[in-house]
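Entry 12.
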Amino acid sequence: MATEYTTIKAILFKSKTLSNGEHPIMLRVTKNRVRKYISLGISCHSKDWNEKDNLPKKSHPHKSIIDKIISKKVAEYNDALMNLKSEDKDFTPDVLINKASKPISKITVFNFFEQKIQQLKDAKQIGNSKVYNDTRNKLKKFLDNKDITFSQIDYNFLLKFETSLKADGLSDTGISVRMRTLRALFNAAIEENYAKRDNYPFHKFKITERYNTKTQKRAITKEELKKIEALVFKQGSSEFEAQQYFLFSYYGQGINFVDVAHLKWVNLIDGRIYYKRAKTGTELNFKLPAPALKIIEFWRISNNPPKDDYIFSILNKQTHITPTQQHNRIHKVLTRVNQDLKEIGKMAEIGIPLTSYVARHTFATVLKKSGVSTAIISESMGHQTEAITQTYLKSFENSIIDEAMENLL
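Predicted 3D structure (tokens):
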């Protein structure tokens, strides 16, 4: 395949002569011999045009003005060309012209924040909408409620915003979340033509290099899980429910707490659970092993429960109707569950603080120790990439290295 070339230059369009005897000055976009012409709204007589430089001759009375108009337009089209190439998108001259000539729409940063927050709420992504809302509030505090445009967000602006977040006592993880949210908003603004890609400040302000956000992903052993399973609590108590949720997550392919809360009887078909991950929208299903079936049976109120009833008693379809009500309820119950799990961990003499997420990490680690490939573990957990799964398995990999090092002694 031949290399594709794109050229952008101003030319005197002699095929057309105006009533004053001059010819239009056009911008010519050429890609693989396909040419398109864009009028610049200016003209020049052939005797005043330098064919070699594609500019008016020095003797032209308005040379400096025409030079600036041409230079500005060529720069705009070259910027659009670079953006298309950076996105690795195939394009025609018409696509390039459309991208370069499309004017930037006007919207303030806070108004765009409002739009995105509402979009997330409409999509029932309540947790994400709250992250955007919190980032907006932090930015409003930093700016003393003065609105700005995206063109005002540059590298120095981000440095000052970072300093204000540190002054508020935010950790590296907390600052990273706000900066990544602002970056996502800026990217969305570029896509919706509210911001220019050449003003993008996050190429220089590299979030991943500025903050230490690594948290240790912890798992327990299968033996420790059996100790948790052996503990006996009064049925219906908060400790009993915390224990059951933890075990169901482990036996239920590492299903996380939010998805456990949303499970309904309609999701249970022939001993399998079919559900869509709230976080990613990935559709998953898994066969329920005997311990997980036993846990579900405790919550079964009849032989044929209504299909739209929740399996577990985290949500109530009569009370928790809106996405916000459901989000708040799940957050409240999860806080209590994690508190109970920490006490359960102490009872079982487990050396790390027990949380609902430990069950998910344990599921992944036990499979890895059993020889299951990372790719299969990633698919079973609904991860979008294997790199995410690797973070779950990091502590396992470290332990293998530690055991190998013993051979040196």
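Annotation: Residues 400-409 have pLDDT under 50 and may be disordered. Residues 323-347 form the longest helix (25 residues).
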